[in-house]
Amino acid sequence: MTSPEWVFVALGSNLGDREGHLAQARVALSTLPGTTLVAASRVEETAPLGARPQPDFLNQMVLLRTTLAPRALLDACLAIERAAGRERRERWGPRTLDLDLVRVGDQRSDEPGLRLPHPELPRRDFWQRELAELLPYVD
Predict the structure, then answer these.
(1) Residue 92 three-state SS
(2) I need a labelling partner for 109 at 20 to 30 A (CA). Which of 6, 46, 69, 119 fits?
């Protein structure tokens, strides 16, 4: 059995029932095998990234404690996105739900589709605020 790891997952939604998508994602993440949802940051409304006109996002970060390997957790996140109606058509485009692995403990990865820590972390102020809100829960 793998040792549990602290994981920060960013949630975002700018289509449909944004609050409902975030709530469903929190429930789905909390029911993954070997996973506990420890805490959730406040929800923030932010302007979309990129040049394409689209609705504002609701964003939130959650802290998980999980025994899932990063790739297995990423696959689970992608399945949760699909269940929420996410269609991957364009980068920086609108979406019902976006789940990003921001940090998985101190692990580093540069695999295709799985870069840890997430390369956008230094450029997203809202992620940094949400991460700071959750760090006190890590023992």
Answers:
(1) coil
(2) 46
